[in-house]
Amino acid sequence: MTRFKNIFFPLLLLTIIVGGCTDFISDELNFENSTITRSVDSKMSYSDYYWLEKEKIPVQKVEGKYQIMYYASDANIFSEKIARANLEFEGIKEWGKCVYPSTKKANSNTIKFTDLKVTTIQGDYNRVSSVLSDAFYWAPYYKMKNGNEIGITNLFYVKLKSETNLSILKELAKENAVELIGADEFLQGCYYLACTNLSKRNALEMANLFYESGLFEFASPSLSGAGNVDCINEPLFEAGSLWHLGNNLTKSYVHVNYCKSRTIISQGSSDVIVAIIDTGVDVSHRDLYNVLPGWDAVTQTTPNRVRGAHGTMVAGFIGAIPNNSQGVAGIAYGTTILPISFAVNNLGGIISSDITMTRAIEYAVNNGAKVINCSWQYDSTLVGEAIKSALDNGCVVVFASGNGGGAISYPANSDSRIIVVGAIDQNGNRASFSNYGNQLDIVAPGENVYSLYPDNTTVMGSGTSFAAPQVTGVAAMVLSKYPALTASEVRYRIEKTAQKITSSVYPYTFQTLAAFATSNNQMGYGLLDSYAALAPQIPYLLKITIRNLSNHRPMGAFNVNLYNLDWSQVQDLTEISPGYGTLFTGEEFTARYDLLPGSYYAEATAEMDGVEEDLKFDFVKGGEITFEYFNTTYPPVGWGIPVYSPN
């Protein structure tokens, strides 16, 4: 029988404590002084259902929850609006591309693509209306019969009965202010359409309208979250208790994105050895898989010895077997767990010497550990040196930040290469006990989280000790998917892709000039995102700086743009990093932008003087472009040679 306990573990100390179109049809959604006006027959709402294989599938509107999309250049504006309205919202995410007429370096009739952002906001309509009115697209969330909440994207697709119906499709799209994007590359006769804030209905309603016209084979909205991934069949997950993996109790975005990450890699590689240096792991636990006998650092013998529950709990977050209807699910199931035990007293304090702790770390390194989890604190320079040696040998080292609610403990704070993990609660706030500071790298769920307990039982506990192994698990999965990555590359992926949650409470900023992402000293780079960390490509930071080095001549109406090689715009960098209308002598402007690897053009212009400079560059893993403006004469001569410096 499963036994449930509620345990809080202070961090092990030596003095340690082990630690759319926009609107759906409803009378309540009437915008005043807005371009988003929809006057339609109330008898033809086309909402609260969609068509699947000629069957009408009912859905239920989720009150007060909306998905919104907007141009990347408007991200700061929307963040401010959301904060002013005091709305609950998910971290801003990349969405993809949407079409609109090109206005630069292309014919006026051609189509170019622009980046969009997407987020989910929650609140009563009176508060959300100010945000929705300026969105590129918005739509409500709907709940399906299986309980999943689906977001309505701005896309829908239509299959023609014959290619002769294409003119009919174009006419109906024009009539409803819908953009016809084009034909699907693989599905013959299938065309994609996109809604904007000018469209008469959202994409779900529009798909229903097109299908019910009888003119097309089928029409369906593009739904976000309509699938029911075979993720975890554990009773605790279904009950909402494994909220760190998927949160359906409080805020739906406060979790580590576990289920979605399983679409990239469903099981870890046994070649990846994860060392758990702790109080010992119950290797016979029925819900653990691929656990080595381990080693006891106290007696220097095999196997490891269980001297407390803490180590088994840590192991559960990493290696518990999913989909066996028992206990919990580990993030890195399939990897090899190497337990290394030390001694503790009956209060959870470490009583092993620093030499013993050093031996434990050395054993992990010498026995092939690629990731080392350390959910403890130990004030010893010798231990700190052993950690540095593990880092020098290419190990990913993960430490819990500590449970005192103050400064980050030692040796977590001893080396910037360590991934330091804090804890959050179910609402996305820093757990009150979680240590924080400038050395904090990332956060993960750590309050009232379930894991394994010795003797085949399950327990609920709290502590940064249990946030850390979630990061350890993701690091192990990244190495399972991309075994050639270095430890620093694994750390970068985890930190760069973190979710910027609860930004209205914890504002994220660039802490230093060398920072590769925004952070906050209570949240680090944000909430662990296992799916994003496993993506085939991740963005790197590009910095573009313009310096006015002219002799007493202001640089008027300057602008900085980023383009693909076909001159389709990636981003107007001046808009997202607002600077000056004019750069006076000696002043400079710097824009930061996350960019996927590829080849691009950067362009700087001084519109008042009518001069511009373009630079083609190959972007791999970050870099900086510098434009220097030397103009001292009239007519203007303009720029020095722009320089791209890759990282």
From TrEMBL:
<dbReference type="InterPro" id="IPR023827">
    <property type="entry name" value="Peptidase_S8_Asp-AS"/>
</dbReference>
<feature type="active site" description="Charge relay system">
    <location>
        <position position="465"/>
    </location>
</feature>
<dbReference type="InterPro" id="IPR023828">
    <property type="entry name" value="Peptidase_S8_Ser-AS"/>
</dbReference>
<protein>
    <submittedName>
        <fullName>S8 family serine peptidase</fullName>
    </submittedName>
</protein>
<dbReference type="InterPro" id="IPR022398">
    <property type="entry name" value="Peptidase_S8_His-AS"/>
</dbReference>
<dbReference type="Pfam" id="PF00082">
    <property type="entry name" value="Peptidase_S8"/>
</dbReference>
<feature type="active site" description="Charge relay system">
    <location>
        <position position="278"/>
    </location>
</feature>
<dbReference type="InterPro" id="IPR015500">
    <property type="entry name" value="Peptidase_S8_subtilisin-rel"/>
</dbReference>
<dbReference type="InterPro" id="IPR036852">
    <property type="entry name" value="Peptidase_S8/S53_dom_sf"/>
</dbReference>
<dbReference type="GO" id="GO:0006508">
    <property type="term" value="P:proteolysis"/>
</dbReference>
<feature type="domain" description="Peptidase S8/S53">
    <location>
        <begin position="270"/>
        <end position="526"/>
    </location>
</feature>
<dbReference type="GO" id="GO:0004252">
    <property type="term" value="F:serine-type endopeptidase activity"/>
</dbReference>
<feature type="active site" description="Charge relay system">
    <location>
        <position position="310"/>
    </location>
</feature>
<keyword id="KW-0378">Hydrolase</keyword>
<dbReference type="InterPro" id="IPR000209">
    <property type="entry name" value="Peptidase_S8/S53_dom"/>
</dbReference>
<keyword id="KW-0720">Serine protease</keyword>
<keyword id="KW-0645">Protease</keyword>
<comment type="similarity">
    <text>Belongs to the peptidase S8 family.</text>
</comment>
<dbReference type="InterPro" id="IPR050131">
    <property type="entry name" value="Peptidase_S8_subtilisin-like"/>
</dbReference>
